[in-house]
Specification:
Keywords: Pyridoxal phosphate. It comes from Halorhodospira halophila (strain DSM 244 / SL1). By secondary structure, the protein is an alpha/beta fold. The chain folds into 2 domains: about 160 residues, Lyase, Ornithine Decarboxylase, Chain A, domain 1 (Beta Barrel); about 220 residues, Alanine racemase (TIM Barrel). About 30% of the residues lie in helices and about 25% in strands. Strands 4, 16, 17, 18, 19, 20, 21 and 22 form an 8-stranded mixed beta sheet that branches. An 8-stranded parallel beta barrel has the order 5-6-7-8-9-12-14-15, surrounded by 6 helices. The chain has a 3-stranded antiparallel beta sheet with strand order 1-2-3. Helix 6 crosses helix 7 and helix 9 packs parallel to helix 10. The two termini are about 25 Å apart. The model has no long low-confidence stretch (mean pLDDT about 95).
Length: about 400
């Protein structure tokens, strides 16, 4: 197998038949026919099921698993996951509508985000979901809406903690942030919630995302539970919710190694036992997005042209950064590294040359693979980008140059 993808955990679930990648036993060429086009994203429900089962087997049974819809809002995928997890977390009115179309109870849906508009707060208020408050100003706007509509909102405070989750792909807490209420501001906000007689549920404490460092995640666990214990003493009502976010990462690049889920879960067992002893009615939520779906997806493009420029081979494809911004390097804002990439119909062939896989856009940033070792490829061949189940199509500039939108399949 191509060494560029052999290290991936997903290759233990995906299969290869006659040299061709298959999902659920369906060859990629047949999936292209089902999609009716290239490019397309395909998501393997067996891999999603496998990941949820692994979490259930490893984490404390008291943990409530939530799916963060922002990772991948494909409606069919959301419906599938909603039947497997304990709740859903959303970040917009559009995502809230998707969540409410599932069988998930409103009490098990939460909405977060630093810029909730009044119409989004009103919809959340009407539906009865938990509103994660991001600022004192948002609290006052919600109070006005609650008074106007004659409803009592269920709320939690999203905390911007006084610590960071080191080695995270994105720092979501610690220092000045647009996310959440600073730890030192929380007592005053809690007092105000008591004055308003809102249905106070608890706290969301989230420090960072895409982390493969098990030690860092365990250190963050320690900080989250310690901070929760401190803040609970200030709460205007018995605390019934601790949403500890997620942060669990997946390996994208050759030197990445999967986090040690067993060790992470073992440490979490101790925290949960102590927390439940002090707060027997508290619901402890682990909110995951990428970790549930990221490895279950592939992005498939077709080679349109093969060209050589000053000795370098370029495979020009019909897809690129307009569908999969993350794989192209996020507009050059980070040091670009290649996602795992392979020739989908020659998975068992050795690499024959180093090629650059590029898209059809009029920008040199439209690169899916830079001088990666692949078997010889020609126009018409299919190339697959792995680790594409999260933050793909919905996180990309799909209207740039007005190319057709990629299709999506749940297999």
């Amino acid at each position: 197998m191509n060494p560029h993808v052999a290290h991936l955990p997903c290759m233990e679930v995906f299969s290869i038949q006659d040299g061709e990648l298959t999902l659920q036993g369906v060859p990629v060429t047949q999936l292209a026919e089902s999609a009716g086009q290239t490019p397309f994203f395909a998501y393997d429900r067996a891999m999603i099921d496998h990941r949820v089962a692994a979490l259930r087997a490893t984490l404390p049974p008291e943990i409530h698993l939530h799916y963060a819809i922002k990772a991948n809002p494909m409606p069919e995928l959301v419906q599938h996951l909603a039947r497997m997890v304990d709740g859903l977390d959303v970040a917009s009115a559009g995502e809230l509508a998707l969540a409410l179309e599932t069988e998930t109870a409103p009490a098990d849906i939460s909405i977060a985000g630093p810029g909730k508009q009044d119409h989004e707060l009103a919809r959340a208020l009407e539906s009865g979901v938990t509103i994660n408050l991001e600022s004192p100003g948002e609290l006052e706007r919600l109070a006005e809406l609650a008074n106007r509509h004659g409803r009592t909102p269920s709320v939690a405070i999203r905390i911007n903690p006084d610590f960071t989750l080191k080695t995270s792909g994105m720092q979501m807490g610690g220092g000045p942030k647009q996310f959440g209420i600073d730890t030192e501001q929380a007592p005053a906000v809690l007092h105000r919630i008591g004055e308003l007689s809102f249905d106070f549920r608890g706290f969301q404490i989230f420090a960072g995302s895409q982390n493969l460092n098990t030690d860092a995640l365990i250190t963050a666990q320690n900080g989250i539970f310690e901070l929760f214990n401190r803040l609970a003493d200030e709460a205007p009502a018995p605390v019934t919710l601790l949403n500890m976010g997620g942060g669990l990462g997946i390996p994208y690049f050759a030197n990445d190694r999967p986090l040690d889920l067993d060790r992470y879960g073992e440490h979490l067992h101790r925290h949960v036992a102590a927390c439940r002893q002090r707060f027997p009615n508290v619901q402890i939520v682990l909110e995951l997005g990428r970790y549930l779906v990221g490895e279950a997806g592939v992005y498939v493009v077709r080679v349109i042209d093969r060209k050589v420029s000053r000795g370098q081979v370029f495979l020009v494809t019909d897809g690129g950064m307009h569908h999969h911004l993350a794989a192209s390097g996020n507009l050059g804002q980070t040091i670009r590294r290649d996602y795992p990439i392979a020739l989908a119909t020659a998975m068992d062939h050795p690499a024959a040359e180093d090629v650059s896989v590029v898209g059809p856009l009029c920008t040199p940033l439209d690169v899916l693979g830079s001088r990666v070792p692949l078997p010889y490829a020609k126009p018409g061949d299919l190339i697959v980008v792995f680790q594409s189940g999260a933050y793909g199509l919905s996180a990309s500039p799909t209207y740039f140059l007005n190319h057709p939108k990629a299709a999506e399949l749940l297999v």
